[in-house]
Amino acid sequence: MDNSIMFKLTYGLFVLTAKDGEKSNGCIINTAMQQTSTPNVISITVNKQNYTEQMVKKTGKFNVSFLDESVTFDTFKHFGFQSGRDVDKFADFADAKTAANGIPFITKGANAYLSCEVKQSLDLGTHTLFLAEVIDGEILSDQASITYTYYQANVKPKPQKVEEKKAGKVWVCKICGYEYDEEEEGVPFEDLPTDWTCPWCKHGKQDFELKA
Length: 212
Hints:
Layout: E1 14-20, E2 23-29, E3 32-37, E4 40-47, H1 51-59, E5 61-67, H2 73-80, E6 96-98, E7 104-106, E8 110-123, E9 127-139, H3 148-155, E10 170-173, E11 179-181, H4 182-185, E12 208-210
Antiparallel strand pairs: 1-2, 1-5, 3-4, 4-9, 5-8, 6-7, 8-9, 10-11, 10-12
């Protein structure tokens, strides 16, 4: 089978946030969807290497901020290119508020958020699927929700012109073929956090190899 078929599925992009004790954290996910309306239940899928996944598993609570088309690449760098094990992502992050459940949600570049409580989880090997009941939420703006296609075309930095581009390493995901270009992303692959995952298939750094 041609695995690129899976790229035709549409995805949104979200910031998943959780809190364990005094520590808040967040990461980028692309799998959040409603399963039933009565009761109001959604599902999210998170790579086990993400620190946020461990926090959700321990506390049973999380928020999901729906990113919209006004979001900037800085949000993806902030929540996707560094690990909450190494930094406090909310220490100096001004574009967030705290929901009634005590967990932060994103206020800039997001059109809504949901507060949820986990009812069931399923071990998917590299990932955990959480089924959770929606407890609260709020619409923040009327901006259109961002899709992964829109992110690739309008938010992710464009490659430099050939004559300006420096020689940089390109790393290829062995699972889905996604290419991480160090010059485009602005962060050396080796410097990405250990829990960074492929934007397409959500596999970890160990499944990437240097492009010949």
